[in-house]
Amino acid sequence: MTDLNKRSMLKVAALSAVAAAALIGCGKKEEPAPAPAPAAAAPAPAPKPEPLKIAFAYVGPVGDGGWTFAHDNGRKALEKELGDKVVTSYVEKVPESADAERVIRDMASQGNKLIFGTTFGYMEPMLKVAGDFKDVKFEHATGYKNADNMRTYDSRTYEGAYMAGVIAGKMTKSNTLGVVASIPIPEVIRNINSFTMGAQSVNPKVKTKVVWVNEWFNPPKETEAATALINGGADVLMQNTDSSAVLQTAEKMNKRAFGWDSDMTAYGPKAHLGSAIINWGPYYIKAAKDALEGKWTNQGSWWGVKEGAIDMVSIAADVPEETKTKIAEIKKGLTDGSFVIWKGPIVGQDGKELIAKDAVADEKFLGGINFYVKGVEGKVPGAK
Known about the structure:
Elements (H helix, E strand, L loop, with lengths): L2 H25 L24 E6 L9 H16 L3 E6 L6 H12 L4 E4 L5 H10 L4 E5 L8 E6 L1 H15 L4 E6 L4 H15 L6 E6 L6 H13 L4 E4 L5 H8 L3 E6 L10 E7 L2 H12 L8 E3 L6 E4 L7 H16 L9 E2 L5 E3 L7 H5 L17
Parallel strand pairs: 1-2, 1-3, 3-4, 4-5, 5-11, 6-7, 6-8, 8-9, 9-10
Antiparallel strand pairs: 10-12, 13-14
Helix pairs in contact: 2-9, 3-4, 5-6, 5-10, 7-8
C-alpha cells in the first residue's frame, strides 16, 4: 500500500471519528429542571354560621313611651351588641287573646329560634306553641309557667316603685298619693304596696288611693283615672300602666307624678319627679348569648337594681338633697344585699301582721301577693 493510500485511509478514519463524536453530541438531551413543589393550598374559610333569628311580641305600640318602648330599646341594645350574629323582628300591639297564639305560632313557623313574649297574658298561648315547636326557645315576661323549651323572665319593678314612694312621701302636701293600676295580678299589687311602703318609710301619715283601668295601655282610661285621683285629693301619682297619660294629666292639673318603665321627663317636665325605669338590654343580650353558645336552660330570671335592670332616674331638681341621698343609699343596699324592701314587720290593710319583724319575704310570697298593706285604701279586685 502506498503512502498516499495510507494517508487517505487515516484521513477517512479521522473524519469518521469526528462525525461520530458530533453525532453523539447532537443526540444528548438535557434533563429538565425538576418542577417546583406545588404551594400548599390555603384552607377554605369556615362557612359563616347563619344568624340567630329572634322575634319579639309586644302588647303595646313601640312608641308608648313606657313598657313596650323599654322592651324595644332592649331589642336594639341586643342588635348593637351582637351585630350580624342575630337578626331580630317584632310585632307590636298583640292583644292578650287568641291573637297572641296566632302571632307567636307564626313567628316560630318563620324560622325564629328565640321568641320573647313581653306581657303576662301571653303565658298560656306561648306555652301551647312551645309544645309544638320543640326546637324553638321561648321566653315569657312576668309569668310563672315554664316548659323544657320555655322559661320566664321578669324585672323587680317593685324596687322602682319603692324608690318612687320614698320621693312621693317627701313631696306630698296632702299626704294622699294615687296609683293608676292596670290589671290586678300580683306584680301590680306588689308595686302598689311597695310604693306605699316607700312613702311610709319617710312619712307615716301617707295613704294611697288606687283606680284600676283593667288594661295595660289605654291612654283615655289612664287620663280619666288620673283625673279622678287628683280630684279625690291625691297630689302625687304613680302608675302601673304603659303610656305617658298619667304624667301628662298631672302636668295639666298642676300636680306631680312619676314616669314608669322608661324616662318620661319630656312628657311632663314640670310634673315629673323621677322615672322608675327598666333596662331590658342586659337580659336580652344574655338570653341571646345563651342560645348562641348552647347554654340556654329553662331556668327563669328575676333581675332588679343589682343586675342593672331597674333604676330611678332624672330625679327632679326640687326633690330635697337628703331624699336623693336616701335613694342612692337604697340603690347601693339593693345592689350589695344590705337592704331588703319586703322585710318585716309588715302589716296588712286589716292590721294583721303579714311578715314578722326581721323576717324576709321569699319569692314565693312575693309572687302570690293578693292583698293591700296598711295605708292603701279600697279592696283588691277579686280578692276574698
